[in-house]
Amino acid sequence: MSQSLRVQIGPTLPAALQGQVGYNTGMQNSQLFSRLFSLTLLLSSLVAVNGCDQAADSKTPPAKPENKESETLRFVAFGDMGTGGAAQYEVAEAVKKKCDQAGCNFVVTLGDNIYNDGVSNVNDAQFQSKFEKPYAPLPQRFYMVLGNHDYRGNVDAQVAYTQKSKKWYLPKRYYDFEAGPVTFLALDTNEPTPEQQKHFQNRLKTANTPWKIAFGHHPRHTNSFYHNSQSSALRSLIDGFCGQVQLYLSGHEHDKQHLKSRCGTEYLIVGTGAGLRPVGRGEDTRFARSSFGFAWFEVSPRRLYFEILNSKGQVEYRASQLKDPQ
Known about the structure:
Blueprint: E1 2-4, E2 6-8, H1 31-36, H2 39-44, E3 46-48, E4 73-78, H3 86-102, E5 106-109, H4 126-132, E6 141-143, H5 155-160, E7 168-169, E8 175-179, E9 182-186, H6 194-206, E10 211-215, H7 232-239, E11 247-250, E12 256-259, E13 266-270, E14 285-289, E15 293-299, E16 303-310, E17 315-324
Parallel strand pairs: 4-5, 5-6, 6-7, 9-10, 10-11, 11-13
Antiparallel strand pairs: 1-17, 2-3, 4-15, 8-9, 12-13, 12-14, 15-16, 16-17
């Protein structure tokens, strides 16, 4: 199945036309577009391009779900969250409201689970103060990966905590799972070994789901603080997914970035679960913002749709990707 990379130009389409576009990004109203396009043209013109950088108007109604419930997967994603501070609780509350409103099957987290130096053992009190208590209102399973701050402590204790917690899930340092129409690859980007790369490449050979999503702590591309300072081993691991996974999710940068595909894979950074830094922009930027928050996904066999929200629950940006029938 090929992928549709069409985008909407102008305000979000009415609900009757939602779901007909590929990377469908809402754009705030502007005098420029009102002069250039009539209402009729806005409703009928879809332009095929490689992508755009457009922030969604938070007042724009959400996209009308096009998917049958039995085929639909919904989840949220965020990283860099384990502080136990007010911002972590605020994001957790916003996630709870979104999940209650729109549905969430589970949570995907993107590393730096326990600041600043990980945990000492499986009974470390920080599991309670920086995970269980902030996320107590959320009953969903949390699919975890390891961040650089987690590696300052006892990584094996974080793996073992899977046996103690009802929601924390980190069975190994890297792993994979399937849910609905998606195969998920949970990376350990701190130790990007050849063995890990071989494991995931073998897994992709047997994955029959329409969508493949990889997630790990460190980004492959970024225009912010770290400026693409990855090791050659990490670049090799993530680049090995080019053209095989549609999306790579990461944190590490304490901001939100949606970057254009460089090799058949889109890049989304959501490292805003509890910390912030100034965000950068580049030629590959679709969206960039520094604000606490998370991403919410809805995935069917034909469409991958996501929203980026702030800690007030306001939608800052939305996009969707279609798979065209063969």
